[in-house]
Write a structure and sequence with these properties.
The protein is an alpha/beta fold. The chain has two domains: 2-67 and 363-402, Roll (Urease, subunit C, domain 1); 69-355, Metal-dependent hydrolases (TIM Barrel, Alpha-Beta Barrel). The protein is 31% helix and 20% strand. It has ten helices and 17 strands. It has helices spanning 91-103, 122-131, 167-180, 208-220, 232-241, 254-263, 282-306, 321-324, 327-334, 340-355, and strands at 2-8, 18-26, 29-34, 58-60, 65-68, 70-75, 110-115, 139-142, 146-148, 162-164, 186-189, 225-229, 245-248, 266-268, 372-375, 392-395, 398-402. Strands 1, 2, 3, 4, 5, 15, 16 and 17 form an eight-stranded mixed β-sheet that branches. Strands 11-12-13-14 form a four-stranded parallel β-sheet. Strands 6-7-8 form a three-stranded parallel β-sheet. A hairpin with a 2-residue loop joins strand 16 (392-395) and strand 17 (398-402). Helix 1 packs across helix 2 and helix 4 (208-220) packs parallel to helix 5 (232-241). The two termini are 18 Å apart. The chain binds zinc ion (2 copies). Residues 193, 228, 247-248 line the site of one zinc ion.
């Protein structure tokens, strides 16, 4: 297939910049990227090398911008928006619900997502179904259940997607179990959670040696650890223990930002999850999340100025208000003062590097997976066009969304 008359952005197309080029896709791979339009059949007379173009599947993209499929490094295909909570009685129903929900990420152009903890480890199964082509869904990077010290009772609804572990030995065992069940990385909770009323985000809930036990167990199996952390102490402990991705980093201090820079830990801010919508509990959430949001946006603006390699997460569910209105893009632009092109790089190239999948996705280049989206506008110059659905979404060489 030829995607013709595409606008390409230098930073995302390995140096090729053009207002009208073409990208060739064969099976599930990108096999050619050109800064010139593909010669059409009636032009072949002047170039005999082109041969017969009649039977080539061609899409005229009319100068719209082609970028790599987006990557969300922090979401959950269950749990968020209560997805899956009503089918705890049936693993079959949970699986179909999770698979159906995973497909919605394609609507906004997300072709790779990292699930940071799922009910009954269902994301591991959805990942497998997508890999073998049984369902249409983004590629998933999964951790099974998230490892967490006892923070609530076993029958609490949130307990369905966590693996309680206290002491170094229990953390090791939980980590080994999650890896044995198919985890690509380990997720731990090193601070309290913002979304659980009884939990205190400022509190450090894991001991440094427990975090270290998770990191060592992961590294032995070629994995890394992602740590949910809001409080500055939890962020600091996580970085010092060797955690690779710091999730949220909400209440991080200037000193800890410096530490992250020195240690090379990646920050994955998830600003959209702190968006407060109108509703009966608006005041409660404003009081709880408002100060966290203001602190976080101020520090992420600072991290950006310092040149930290920032990732892109949402902690929101595809299909919800935040996803469908590009709230994560908006907050980074309006509240953190990040440049349009840099935000675009965060959700493509940066995320691919952070997740260690940059040899397959995150860039338009020969030999990369054909995960591509066509955008109406110039997102590198004005990111606001990313607040809406892309015109076309291609996943592994197949057009899965078109409008
Ligand atoms: Zn979290
Ligand atoms: Zn999360």
């Amino acid at each position: 297939m030829i995607l013709n008359h595409v606008r390409l952005i230098r930073e995302l197309s390995s140096g090729i910049s053009t207002e009208s080029g073409f990208v060739r896709v064969e099976k599930d791979m990108i096999t050619e990227v050109s800064d010139r339009p593909y010669p059409l059949a009636d032009e072949t007379a002047v170039n005999t090398n082109i041969g017969n173009t009649e039977d080539i599947d061609m899409v005229d993209c009319k100068g719209k911008t082609l970028i790599p499929g987006l990557i969300d490094l922090h979401t959950h295909i269950t749990v968020l928006n209560q997805v899956g909570f009503n089918c705890l009685h049936s693993d079959m129903e949970l699986l179909t619900t999770a698979a159906e929900h995973a497909a919605h990420y394609l609507d906004m152009g997300f072709t790779t997502i990292r699930d940071c903890g799922s009910i009954h480890r269902v994301a591991n199964e959805v990942k497998h179904m997508a890999q073998i082509g049984l369902i249409e869904a983004p590629d998933l990077i999964t951790c099974g259940r998230a490892v967490m010290p006892t923070e609530g009772s076993e029958d609490h609804i949130m307990a369905q997607h966590v693996h309680f572990a206290d002491t170094v030995d229990e953390v090791r065992k939980a980590a080994r179990q999650e890896i044995a069940e198919g985890a690509d990385f380990l997720k731990v909770f090193t601070s309290g959670a913002a979304a659980v009323a009884t939990s205190v985000p400022e509190q450090s809930i894991m001991f440094p040696e427990e975090i270290r036990a998770a990191v060592e167990t992961a590294e032995r199996k070629g994995r890394y650890v992602a740590a949910h952390c809001h409080g500055d102490n939890a962020v600091r402990n996580s970085i010092l223990a060797g955690v690779r991705t710091i999730e949220h980093a909400t209440l991080i201090s200037d000193e800890t930002l410096e530490l992250a820079a020195v240690q090379g830990a990646y920050l994955i801010p998830t600003l959209a999850v702190m968006h407060i919508s109108d509703g009966p509990r608006k005041d409660y959430w404003e009081k709880r999340l408002g100060p966290m949001f203001r602190h976080c946006t101020e520090k992420m603006a600072k991290a950006y100025e310092m040149g930290l390699y920032l990732g892109f997460g949402t902690d929101c569910a595809a299909g919800d208000f935040c996803y469908d209105n590009g709230i994560e893009f908006r907050f980074r632009r309006e509240n953190c003062g990040m440049k349009d092109l840099d935000i675009l790089l965060q959700c493509t190239r940066n995320n691919a590097v952070i997740a260690g999948i940059e040899d397959r996705v995150g860039m338009i280049r020969k030999g990369m997976s054909a995960d591509l989206i066509l955008v109406d506008g110039k997102p590198d110059l004005d990111i606001r066009c990313m607040y809406h659905r892309p015109k076309l979404v291609m996943k592994r060489g197949k057009i899965v969304r078109r409008m």
